[in-house]
Design brief:
Layout lengths: L4 E5 L11 H10 L4 E7 L9 H5 L7 E2 L2 E9 L12 H4 L4 E4 L12 H13 L5 E2 L12 H11 L2 E5 L13 H14 L3 E4 L12 H10 L11 H9 L12 E2 L8
Parallel strand pairs: 1-2, 2-4, 3-9, 4-5, 5-6, 6-7, 7-8
Antiparallel strand pairs: 3-4
Helix pairs in contact: 4-5, 5-6
Length: 259
């Protein structure tokens, strides 16, 4: 399986990642990707940017060094009107909205019922496009059946996260659960994305571990949303308008100007 898009990457704005947006785009082009989503952590995460950062993502190029860039977020579930830690007024302007649980954001009690209810609220938000690393059962246990059913009903992507299968990952203790979510998503017709969760430029487009799992469970390429930039945009635009998708224009960092 050859994937040409990565829907989960982080810049230095996340506070614990170490590359710029330009460095991510250059790395993506180097490995042959057509599209990346920049999904910096929502404000509830320690060290993350505040709401103004996400509001101003309109200034980021929409095509950078030949790579389509979706300006997005990896928000956190929250007991708020939107169900996550960014308001709908900002979410509706983003190209891509992912949501996932992270330490020190209010859900560290390992309460399966509470976590599930919080994630169901987030999935029901029409601006939410993807749930990240849902198989993190070691830290944030979930009711798999209810989450998959909700994702199916709302056409929200469930992620098969490559970093979850790295030996150094804090999620390695429960990576079997990530596999179970992918199997359940496949059985229920839920859209799936295989992503790197890159926190440094060299990790962009690294899918090998997750691709091996996909092959083992029989997840075929046509079931994966991020197989091409076209398949990503077709899925996203089929769900809602993306008013700033092309707002940032085209930029070539090598020439220092519009391409």
């Amino acid at each position: 399986m050859r994937l040409l898009a990565d829907l989960h990457t982080h810049t230095i704005a996340s506070g614990h990642a170490y590359s710029t947006a330009t460095e991510l785009a250059v790395a993506a082009r180097r490995v042959g990707l057509e599209l990346i989503a920049i999904t910096d952590h929502g404000p509830a995460c320690p060290g993350a940017p505040d709401q103004w950062y996400f509001w101003n993502l309109k200034v980021l190029p929409s095509v950078l060094d030949g790579v389509r860039v979706l300006k997005g977020c990896e928000a956190n579930p929250a007991e708020s009107e939107s169900g996550i830690d960014l308001p709908d007024s900002i979410l509706q302007q983003l190209d891509f909205v992912a949501v996932g649980f992270h330490p020190e954001t209010g859900f560290d009690q390992r309460d399966r019922a509470r976590n599930t209810e919080a994630l169901l609220r987030a999935i029901a938000n029409p601006y939410v496009d993807m749930i990240t690393h849902p198989g993190n059962d070691h830290e944030f246990p979930l009711d798999l059946g209810r989450v998959v059913e909700a994702a199916s009903r709302h056409r929200v992507i469930l992620e098969l996260n490559d970093h979850t299968f790295a030996p150094t990952s804090c999620r390695a203790h429960s990576n079997h659960r990530e596999r179970e979510f992918a199997e359940a998503a496949m059985a229920s017709g839920v859209p799936v994305a295989i992503n790197s969760d890159a926190h440094f430029a060299s990790q962009v487009g690294c899918f090998d571990a997750a691709l091996a799992v996909a092959a083992e469970i029989g997840l075929t390429e046509e079931r994966v949303v991020n197989r091409t930039s076209e398949s990503v945009l077709e899925h996203l635009l089929g769900r809602r308008d993306r008013p700033r998708l092309d707002h940032g224009g085209i930029w070539d960092s090598g020439t220092g100007g519009a391409a």
